Amino acid sequence: MRAAVLTWALVGLFLVEEASSKCPTIKRRPQDTNCNYYCRNEADNGWEEGFLLDGQTCNYETSNDGECRDGICYKAS
Description:
Elements: H1 2-19, E1 36-40, E2 47-51, E3 57-58, E4 66-69, E5 72-75
Antiparallel strand pairs: 1-2, 3-4, 4-5
InterPro entries: Ixonnexin-like (IPR011694)
Signal peptide: 1-21
Keywords: Secreted, Signal
């Protein structure tokens, strides 16, 4: 029972940490090819992951043939 509680506590902590990214959601910049990017954390001792806005173009197979949705590049239809 203790192991199950500890496991769920760690999973919950991980999910809270993932949801609290300090990187802003941004529009695509010329250097962006994927739907995610990294920015320095507030303590300046590590990195946080940020995402492009949904609907921004990305490189799925070739240049600008994809579309960002929830931080993932999908083939544009």
